[in-house]
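Rotation project, supervised by the postdoc (A.L.). Task for the rotation student: set up a whole-complex structure prediction and record inputs and outputs verbatim in this book. Inputs entered:
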Amino acid sequence: MLAKRIIPCLDVRDGKVVKGVNFVGIKEVGDPVELAMEYDRQGADEICFLDITATHEGRGTMVDVVRRTAQNVFVPLTVGGGISSVDDIRNILRAGADKVSINSAAVRNPKLISEAAEIFGSQCVVVAIDAKRREDGSFTVVISGGRIDTGLDAVQWAKQVQQLGAGEILLTSMDTDGVKNGFDLELTNAVSQAVTIPVIASGGCGCLEHFSQVFEKTGADAALAASLFHFKELTVSQVKEHLRECGIPAR
Amino acid sequence: MIAIIDYGAGNLFSVKNALDFLGVESVITSDAAQIEAADALILPGVGAFGDAMNRLESTGLVPVIKQQVQKKPLLGICLGMQMLFEKGFEFGEHDGLGLIPGKVRLLNANGFKIPHMGWNSLNITQENAVTKNLAQGDYVYFVHSYMADTLPQYICATSDYCEQVTALVANGNVYGAQFHPEKSGKVGLSILKNFCELAQKGENK
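Outputs recorded:
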């Protein structure tokens, strides 16, 4: 049976893993390759790097990080953050990433999704959608780290990216992100029912039960978490064990 | 020395990375002499069946591969595994290498998501050198929309998804994995290691 995936995400800046709460007091905490290897040992089904490097010069370091990770970690590797052209995608894939995740650039230039899918195949094109709840209960797509409200409806946008050739959707709720009260089940359900491509739920998990909940109550195929694993509140193996206890297929 | 066959398709480096990690010497090549000198061959592949076969044919390596598998092991991975069969039905009908009887067709979705993507467990149906140290239910990483229809005698493992998906196949020296052993963690590395040991033993020469 197909397993539900658990994906730890690492924020990488200038080639170093950083952590901080709400962008305050960000500090370097280690080498992304070492941490990716640690997550792999814990049983991560996939590793995600989010490049938060601000400068153009710093971006070259991500390619090196990906190359070194791919030499030591033998599970799929997804890289996102600042990817805005076919060349960016090619560079990251050539370095050894298996998938790229496109966020703001996909909204600004939806053609990038179809171009990338045609050239590299849908299986490596993940579209990241950051969604925020509207007053009427629907969800709007925000970009640029939540600073710009695009006015797009998240469910409609999800359908559109699938049609354009996206192979997967990484869905983050900006309302639950960092709150640790659980994934946004309503959002996750709305999107996973609207598309036939896999949906990765992200934002809000704070304990083991939140993982089983998102798989039991929505059509999510995978769950992504950053700080929870980062701050060692939980290990990937604990999450897997919990899922198996709940009868949810996990590797 | 393992020759990873380069025909201009697919992510060859992840296979090479895995072999490097295992400490097995390998070379990415489209050179017939290197392929003839190798102890074993790996045929990777990502993309569409017809396009990949056309590329492989244009390298002139098809007769070389067919001749070499008489005396050394070959492992096809993902699309490379599909190409081992007689025919493929992705975007039309195409001839494959014909090293294992059978044809490659679209998965029967039966309401499941296509592609079949992610970690799925193996049901081992037949043990051989490549399945050594594998346990029933071990998970491996798949990404595919087409699968091989073949006789049970050639199937070593399947996975349950929308139907019984052909996961591992073998016919003499010829082995194939529908999943990506190079992306399947420890289990995948162990499959690659088994294959490489088979090559080093030279049992099939």
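Student's summary: Chain A is about 40% helix and 25% strand.
Supervisor addendum: The two ends of chain A are 10 Å apart (CA to CA).
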